[in-house]
Design a protein that fits this description.
Helix 9 links the parallel strand 10 and strand 11. Helices cover 42% and strands 19% of the residues. It folds into 2 domains: 252 residues, Aldehyde Dehydrogenase, Chain A, domain 1, CATH 3.40.605.10; 182 residues, 3-Layer(aba) Sandwich (Aldehyde Dehydrogenase, Chain A, domain 2), CATH 3.40.309.10. By secondary structure, the chain is an alpha/beta fold. It contains 15 helices and 18 strands. The relative contact order is 0.14. The longest helix is centred in the N-terminal third of the chain and has 25 residues.
Amino acid sequence: MQSINPFTGQIVEEYREYTSSEVEKIIIQVDQAFQSWKQTSFVERAVCMKNLQAKLLERKAELASIMTSEMGKVLREAIGEIEKCALVCGFYAENAESFLKNEPIITEASESYVTYQPIGTVFAVMPWNFPFWQVFRFLAPALMAGNTGVLKHASNVPGCALAIEQLVRDAGFPENVFRTLLIASSSVKAVIENPFIKAVTLTGSTPAGKSVASIAGSALKKSVLELGGSDPYLILEDADIETAARLCVTSRLLNAGQSCIGAKRFIIADKIYDSFKTEFVRLMAQATYGDPLDLQTTIGPLARVDLRDELHLQVERSREMGATVLLGGFVPEGNAAFYPPTVLENVVPGMPAYHEELFGPVAVLFRFKTEEEAIRTANDTVFGLGAGIFTADLAKGKMLAEKGLEAGCVFVNDFVKSDPRLPFGGIKGSGYGRELSVVGIREFMNVKTVVVK
């Protein structure tokens, strides 16, 4: 198992993959840890979680550099990601007890109520694009709820995976409450089927989600899936063009465009299409790609060369089928996995850029004449993760957000972002279940009814 720097092309470090017997031993140890961890109080758990929050902030420069070297995220974004992980730790340390308190229900019995009890070890299968945040948005609520966890991280970020395990240990959590498994994707099925694993959560591609859901379903185990997205953004004719273009570009270029909730499809009112396009392309063209450790760099390389090449193939195939490339659309010279900010228009059904997720700094512009047409175009996708609307008419924006767009979250006059206080997840090909907020911490709990006559 190798960690390869996508900027230099050099091997950062090599790791030995765990054997099946080692994996089995770790899972048993984590289950044994659960038997005592579930008995601890919320106060005891919160002490460890707040320690973890502090460790993240103390080591954020070091942890961010690991992230940058393994998957190319620019350093300032990597530091921000570590800070967000600290935020979610603090959020659940402060709120888990109230989120999971018993809920009385009035019936003819003398007492009846719902109690939330931890179910055991949760298996997390996580991606490389936000290698700390994706893990912590599962880890913080799971551990505060009294569950334990094992992690199978993406094969190109083993350094991040092991750093997270060490952080948990250094924060004072009991040994084996959370462990990392250095295993290949081919080993995931056996882990899910292990009797000591009680549930699975995956963030990744739609095909990976279907595979994991099938295995978990066959084993009658709960699963939560956060999958791909092709988020549409509606730019209505009364929108503030400069603000809308700036926020849309920010969303599209965040993490070099490698974000499930990144803005990807921009559906623009006919009357302002040309004005918005001009401003949008101008801002996209200002982005600079370069050394991700340089704080002046806007976007770093994609995580791997093969991912960059797949993205370029999607652009090229769309161009060959009639799409117009307004900006970018080429592979830069050199060994780094760079792809330039790219803008396409005249994209129609049948093209890869219309149907597929573009996981990199590529934007697609559409024109609409009626709001019905805009909604139809926005929803004409297998995905349903996030969406955005820019308009001066907030009542209309809220109506379209609630009743028009098929997505797990819709932001009006801002770009989509995850927040510990708000449920996060999608519908359709973007998965099911929710992370974060009170909803997320209850996903892996036994919602138990108690009735006393």
